[in-house]
Amino acid sequence: MTDSTGEKPLWDRSAAELAAGIRDKMFSATEVAQAFLRRIDETNPALNALVDIRPEEALAQAAAADAQVAAGEALAPLHGVPVATKINTAQRGYASSHGIPAWAGAVAQDDAACVAALRQAGANLMGRSNSPAFAVRWFTGNDLHGRTLNPWSSAHTPGGSSGGAAAAVASGMVPIAQGNDIGGSIRFPAYCCGAVGLRPTMGLVSAMEPGGGVEFDSPLSFQTMAVHGPLGWTVDDVRLALNAMVTPDLRDPVGLPVRPPLGESRPVKVAVVRDVGLAKSHAAVEAAIDDAAGRLAEAGYEVEEVELPLLGEAARLWSLLLYEELRTMMPEIEQFGDDTVRISLASSFAAAAETWGERPTLDAYIKGYARRGTLITRLQQYLGDERILLTPVSAEPPFEQDADLAGDGRVRELLAAQWPMQAVPVLGFPAMSVPTGIRDGLPSGVQLIGGRFRENLLLRAATEIEARTPRTRPSLAWSNSS
């Protein structure tokens, strides 16, 4: 996309281009902020992706960034780059509302560790991204902020729970957004909106909220499966954001004492896993796998088709461990959540019961966690230092809007289709969603999974796919006819 001068407008440039341009005085941080604020004004009314936008604060941050440039100070990697943060993550002076009306006044006094890291890296924090209440749906909407739409199709989900983040990135409101992921909440929205999303290795990015963490007795699955990570329009955007967000933090129950090396980026072996026996992939999903496998082969990767049943087993464990622990949160969800969350979770519990029974025993729960450790070891042994996995993101294209409210039968299909999303959090490995183009008017993409702390292997492979994939921004044509 170009403007009247034949150049890309500022809002359509990557984070790396923006940071370099500000550093080299090609344009100012203020000009960048103004360009993105105009883009937000143009697109957000149709999408409702960002909430609590404060232009005066964004411009003040930009002015401070320009003063640092003028003073010749050392500049951080994201100096002046617009970034959105999610409504369930603390940012000082903003409500951590989780989309819940009763929590609209829960203003954070300080930043979560990942937000502080982005701020320290020079990001211009510009707006909060929408999510479902309690961040437990693959759809985005709540009673406080309303529904977020997919920039490609109002009839399809933008994904969830980081749906506002993905829609904002894809439509050019910000080049980078922070999200979090316990069952696909970064990777699935990126897939639905045609962006890039990375779920880091467990513990790489601190999950600490101000004064929080284990003090709030969050369920074990939240402590061992939920991570913060970046979404971006390009792989380089995600790489920059990840490097900024890595936060050694021993306050985090799974935190690391030092910043680890993230692996080499040489070509590696690619094992293609299409199916684990839980859901038959849609033709568009199969085509995306074919496309990505072919592009990696062209780039010199050794690509082979494999069977890996442990991923299916991990996906089934997710529905045991996460949902049994969500039961302990149901009184709060019933009190403060909206009808969409209650209906969605009721159908999800019913679907999980078909595998684990209405009330799984304590013995099954304990053995589930024991089995998790075995699966982690086996997958790490299989991947080693030179292999990554190529899988679907979902067995289906982006779901129809609010498909999880269509009854127990449809929810069973959704949960089965999301096996690639569910397996990864149980195991704690890094994974990313990479676009492969547009098919039938909707984004398509694949998931890459690597060994622990091998993010650079994923980023390198994603770069090769991206280099061979035509990219285009959504036109939002549907919004003009509605």
Structure in words:
The protein has 482 residues and is α/β, with parallel strands linked by helices. It has helices at residues 15-23, 29-47, 55-70, 113-120, 163-170, 187-193, 220-225, 235-245, 283-298, 309-326, 330-336, 339-356, 362-383, 408-417, 419-427, 455-467, 477-481; strands spanning 50-51, 82-86, 124-129, 141-142, 146-147, 176-181, 196-199, 227-232, 269-272, 302-305, 387-392, 431-439, 442-449. The strands form two sheets. An eleven-stranded mixed beta sheet has the order 1-3-2-6-8-7-12-13-11-9-10, sandwiched between helices. Strands 4-5 form a two-stranded antiparallel sheet. A hairpin with a 3-residue loop joins strand 4 and strand 5 (146-147). Helix 2 (29-47) runs antiparallel to helix 3, helix 5 (163-170) runs parallel beside helix 6 and helix 12 (339-356) crosses helix 14. The protein is globular. The mean pLDDT is 95.
What are the main properties of this structure?
alpha/beta, 17 helices, 13 strands, 482 residues, 42% helix
Summarize the structure.
By secondary structure, the chain is α/β, with parallel strands linked by helices. The chain is built from 17 helices and 13 strands.
**Count of separate DSSP helical elements:** 17
The overall pLDDT, averaged over residues, is: 95
Shape summary: globular
Largest sheet: 11 strands, mixed
Structural class: alpha/beta
Radius of gyration: 21 Å
Q: How far is it from the N-terminal to the C-terminal residue, by CA?
A: 24 Å
Low-confidence stretches: none
Helix-strand topology string: HHEHEHEEEHEHEHEHEHEHHHHEHHEEHH
- Helix coverage percent of residues? 40-55%
User: Strand percentage, roughly?
Assistant: 5-15%
* Tally of strands: 13
| Cross-sheet strand order for the largest sheet | 1-3-2-6-8-7-12-13-11-9-10
- What is the quaternary state of this protein? single chain
